[in-house]
From TrEMBL:
<dbReference type="InterPro" id="IPR002942">
    <property type="entry name" value="S4_RNA-bd"/>
</dbReference>
<dbReference type="InterPro" id="IPR020094">
    <property type="entry name" value="TruA/RsuA/RluB/E/F_N"/>
</dbReference>
<dbReference type="GO" id="GO:0160138">
    <property type="term" value="F:23S rRNA pseudouridine(2604) synthase activity"/>
</dbReference>
<dbReference type="Pfam" id="PF00849">
    <property type="entry name" value="PseudoU_synth_2"/>
</dbReference>
<dbReference type="InterPro" id="IPR036986">
    <property type="entry name" value="S4_RNA-bd_sf"/>
</dbReference>
<dbReference type="InterPro" id="IPR006145">
    <property type="entry name" value="PsdUridine_synth_RsuA/RluA"/>
</dbReference>
<dbReference type="InterPro" id="IPR050343">
    <property type="entry name" value="RsuA_PseudoU_synthase"/>
</dbReference>
<protein>
    <recommendedName>
        <fullName>Pseudouridine synthase</fullName>
        <ecNumber>5.4.99.-</ecNumber>
    </recommendedName>
</protein>
<dbReference type="GO" id="GO:0000455">
    <property type="term" value="P:enzyme-directed rRNA pseudouridine synthesis"/>
</dbReference>
<dbReference type="GO" id="GO:0003723">
    <property type="term" value="F:RNA binding"/>
</dbReference>
<dbReference type="InterPro" id="IPR020103">
    <property type="entry name" value="PsdUridine_synth_cat_dom_sf"/>
</dbReference>
<feature type="domain" description="RNA-binding S4">
    <location>
        <begin position="7"/>
        <end position="66"/>
    </location>
</feature>
<dbReference type="InterPro" id="IPR042092">
    <property type="entry name" value="PsdUridine_s_RsuA/RluB/E/F_cat"/>
</dbReference>
<dbReference type="Pfam" id="PF01479">
    <property type="entry name" value="S4"/>
</dbReference>
<keyword id="KW-0413">Isomerase</keyword>
<keyword id="KW-0694">RNA-binding</keyword>
<dbReference type="InterPro" id="IPR000748">
    <property type="entry name" value="PsdUridine_synth_RsuA/RluB/E/F"/>
</dbReference>
Amino acid sequence: MVSPAPQRLAKWIAQSGYCSRRAAERFITEGVVSINGAVARHTDGVSTVDRVCIHGQPLSAQPALQYVLYHKPVGIDCNNRPDDPASLYQVLRLLPQRLFAVGRLDKDSSGLLLLTNDGALSQRLMHPAFYHEKGYQVNTDKNITADFIASMAAGVSWQLGEKTYQSRPCQITQSGNQQFYIVLTQGLHRQIRYMCKTLGYRVTALKRDRLHNLKLAQLPEGQMRPLSSTELHQLQLLSTLPQP
């Protein structure tokens, strides 16, 4: 009998739908993953004959993959803390199947979140090498100038502690006296807010309405809907190869 081909442990966990590949790597580093009773290493390979446990609980058989759009309201924090009443965990725990969010929106922002148990797709969507587009509607505290638009489009750098961050050049259009629409291809922490702050502006409202080919459209705040087969097919095609 031919033994099943092993896979890298983090990829195996992500494909099971338990969490993203990045989160799986963190669990392995923390020493909470075991294979057949032994503490796992990042270089371990596993297959269907192995028993993988996380926090002592066996990894379930791979479930059917699910893809859901969620319109996150302001006030929901994209952490996964069961003891936090504002955590996205309180939303996810009510679902019939274990899902996680692809990426984050800060607590003060609203808009489109993709919920899934497809760890491999999640990894591709979050990796900066793929240049996935994300669109945001943004309101500011004062009138926008042509210099502001030009500076945002060219890229902005800012300092946090000892680390310097640099935004990529992006698409941006003014949509009102104090509103603009921006399309990013990276996902730095609170990026738009820091870009605006560096240029002397404060964000008063921020909503993400697009992730790649997925659009928020008329989905009501706090509601969810499954991806259509066409949306999923397009998303998978667009997520196959990194952009040059």
